[in-house]
């Protein structure tokens, strides 16, 4: 086989971990590390209106000890369709009660996790891995179909059939989504047990000029409520942090 | 549903067509047009060592009348693993008899069609389409698992489950690979019937400084043999064309 693979049999098990720099993916990176993987953190630059989350991803990858961290450029703006990549206003709310999880939010990026996972599968194949970790959660946004387990299961099969490692090498791609059925509070609880420092993460869809969280977008409200459910305050919403 | 879709019920059936600017994808674009689709041609800029193929893609899209043509940036170099994206020499041969299709060639890009199709699914969702055309061929390179029908079938299911249009909208994504079982000669025959001008296509993996085909890489040899099987000469290998 002519494929250039970096792995050898003596190396630890490797996994590619999708890392946005947000609360969920930071937790997932900590979980993959705790499970003994050598972690390959993968972030995307995809025409977000704010790149402050990539800075957070760098901080998280470094602090949690990822073996490598790369940023993959994706020209998502070319295909449009979302408030996160287009010039569409991100919705803000007065309280978490106004969140509507019954349909795809305006922040839905078409086929985003399909694209992200596909790139992860490509990188995984290059570094000799077939395990991919993703912070998908089916509860926060039930309107995101690509955050549900049936999709992730089917993706595993597609990646297995669509790569040399899988189709010819007999390896099976696996997509681990350890947060898929957790509430935000449960995710935070798990991350705190693993020592995740949430003050360096960034989840806000619409940060201020110096990168501070807005506290009123869906993403901010979800994590705010998660901390509150544990009797805690989200560290990125306290005034002294998040610069 | 908050998704921003461009399509309305009065519009013709739309399809996204993967268009590299090579012989196969030009033929597929002509086929999709002939089947009555309004075609959305999608090319990728992914760190190829030569961008001459994107110029060919523009020519082909224009000449065959695609409704739109976009180039999507993919930072494939970041994940490495192929002579097409890394600084690895493309193999050259004295004749077509030296082609080896028993394993993945060094020009294999990890998970390429998985990534390409995922982006196609995202764009399709944005323009209100669920049909995707790809020039995959299982004969030319039996070492490319992502050119085989079992992978394409599984991808259809993954895309359906991973998008709002599919999972919630009841649409079914379809991947059409009309060349999948054709010989190169059969592909060319079909394209000529549809009026494809192969002189404006570009398939070479290792073009010269002014973009001319090398005539000795795997890709050049495959199409050269295809034309010869029909008693023709590949127009890009005649000295007066391909600038």
Automatic annotation (TrEMBL), chains A, B:
One of its GO terms (molecular function) is ligase activity, forming carbon-nitrogen bonds. Binds 1 zinc ion per subunit. One of its GO terms (biological process) is tRNA queuosine(34) biosynthetic process. Its cofactor is Zn(2+). Zn(2+) binds at residues 204, 214, 217, 220. Its EC number is 6.3.4.20. InterPro entries: QueC, Rossmann-like_a/b/a_fold. Pathway: Purine metabolism; 7-cyano-7-deazaguanine biosynthesis. It catalyses: 7-carboxy-7-carbaguanine + NH4(+) + 2 ATP = 7-cyano-7-carbaguanine + 2 AMP + 2 diphosphate + 2 H(+). Keywords: ATP-binding, Ligase, Metal-binding, Nucleotide-binding, Queuosine biosynthesis, Zinc. The keyword Nucleotide-binding applies. NCBIfam families: 7-cyano-7-deazaguanine synthase QueC. Catalyzes the ATP-dependent conversion of 7-carboxy-7-deazaguanine (CDG) to 7-cyano-7-deazaguanine (preQ(0)). This is 7-cyano-7-deazaguanine synthase.
């Amino acid at each position: 086989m002519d494929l250039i693979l970096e792995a050898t049999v003596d190396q630890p098990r490797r996994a590619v971990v999708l890392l946005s720099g947000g609360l969920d993916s930071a937790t997932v990176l900590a979980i993959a590390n705790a499970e003994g993987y050598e972690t390959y953190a993968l972030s995307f630059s995809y025409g977000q209106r704010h790149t402050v989350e990539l800075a957070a991803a760098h901080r998280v990858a470094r602090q949690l000890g990822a073996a490598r961290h790369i940023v993959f450029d994706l020209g998502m703006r070319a295909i449009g369709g979302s408030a996160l990549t287009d010039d569409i206003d991100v919705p803000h709310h007065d309280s978490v009660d106004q969140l509507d999880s019954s349909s795809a939010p305006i922040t839905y990026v078409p086929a985003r996790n399909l694209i992200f996972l596909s790139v992860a599968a490509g990188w995984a194949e290059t570094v000799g891995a077939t395990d991919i970790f993703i912070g998908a959660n089916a509860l926060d946004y039930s309107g995101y179909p690509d955050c549900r387990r049936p999709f992730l299961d089917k993706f595993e099969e597609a990646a297995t059939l669509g790569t040399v490692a899988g189709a010819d090498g007999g390896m099976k791609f696996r997509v681990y989504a350890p947060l898929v059925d957790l509430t935000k509070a449960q995710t935070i609880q798990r991350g705190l047990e693993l020592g995740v420092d949430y003050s360096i993460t960034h989840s806000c869809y619409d940060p201020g000029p110096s990168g501070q969280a807005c506290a009123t977008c869906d993403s901010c409200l979800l994590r705010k409520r998660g901390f509150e459910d544990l009797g805690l305050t989200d560290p990125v919403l306290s005034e002294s942090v998040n610069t």
